[in-house]
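Continuing the series of single-chain predictions for the mutant panel. This is the parent chain; the variants come on the following pages.
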Amino acid sequence: MKTVLYQNADWIITMDEERRRYRHADLLISGKEIKAIGKNLKDTLGDTVTIDETVDASGRVILPGFVNTHHHTWQTLIRNIKATQGLRLEPWLTTMYEIYKDLNTDVARAGVYVALGEGLKTGITTSNDLWYPHPVGVTCLVDAEIEAAKELGIRFHPVRSYHSVTSDIVPPEVVDSIEGVMGDAERLVKKYHDPSRFSMCQVGIGPSIAYYETEEIVRATIDLAEKLDIKVHGHLAESRGEVAFVEEHYGCRPAEWFRRHDLLGDRFYYAHCIHLNDEEVQLMADTNTGISTCPISNMYLSSGSCRIPDLLRAGVKRFGIGVDGAASSNSASMMEEIRVSYLLNRLSWGDDSIGCEDILYLATAGGAAALGRDDIGHLAPGMAADFTLMNWDQLQYAGGCNDPVDCIVLSGDARMIETVVVNGETVVKNGRLTKVNEEEKRDYAAAVGRELLTKASARIPGLKADLV
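Parent structure:
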């Protein structure tokens, strides 16, 4: 195992329970694991450790790798199109599903290269992906994602999602049976899921939006998750239309429907959770249900703002940030999500509603807890060697290098990310991916995306304007 000493960092931000910070300090890793954090480690450890490589970290801030708790990677190939600009969630989805009919393994693979490649370059070391549209007859979409994520070197939490009924939005081309969904999910878990410490792949299951599915498949999902001991993920309380639908059809609000159907608790985490009343905020805390806030997506679709300050005050600990699918957020940059999350909460809930360190918690330790991980999300001996070196010794940050967390949250951007380490392996160096050829992946993804939109343009005339 290679032992590497990152020496004399301006700051090391641990995001541990005490939120300790180290000034002008060192970080020592061996293989996949952090071994020590402190000042002058080379002198302190002496001959007890053989150091294979020393990295000068002066002018850098070291912090835990970001944990992206909600994504739809294939949507990276369906962004910046006029056919969906200015639409709210439901009409936006109607157009999206026309495109989803042509999803295939090339789209799955290319989407991961672009989305998670960008994610790595913005400090994400662990990412969720919720894949819900599976065209009938098309197999191994999640397999293709997992293989592409492994190429990039990112820690991956894919979720085998599904649709079981048609609707005004969901076409029959992406609807599957209980047997088909559960059989494929169990196959994926047996083939790829690794529950061990420092695991690089953990598979989950879940409906995209539970109350749009049959109660039988929701029950089967919970039973399979308990049988295989895996997490359940989906969407909850994202739009006003969703709340109105559940109230009309079931006589209750979405969170209450989830409670009645045993969909809250340690095994579950959900994206958005915008439209929660006071009782439902406390319900999420009391049941230890995880949440992923997706601020840019929620703004883009005019869905609303997650009540982050209230949820934190209520005691929600399993709480992360997700970049969501690029078709509604238009990028996979965690640095953008962090800054926007802080600003949106100040705008929505008041000047003193949240601090920069609270937002950084969501992007690191809180996100790890949402995914059920206790081996990532903060820096300490015995934790996974997942971290970033941020170079704030650059012109664009000069004059603002005071409190490091404030600088990262308020002034940081992707240019700050210099080195990203996952499981002890450098996967981004000088802002470039190290394990794949970026130009090859760029050209491949561009061709796959063009083909996908060209096929869909036969059904969506508005797409033709984007293909000239």
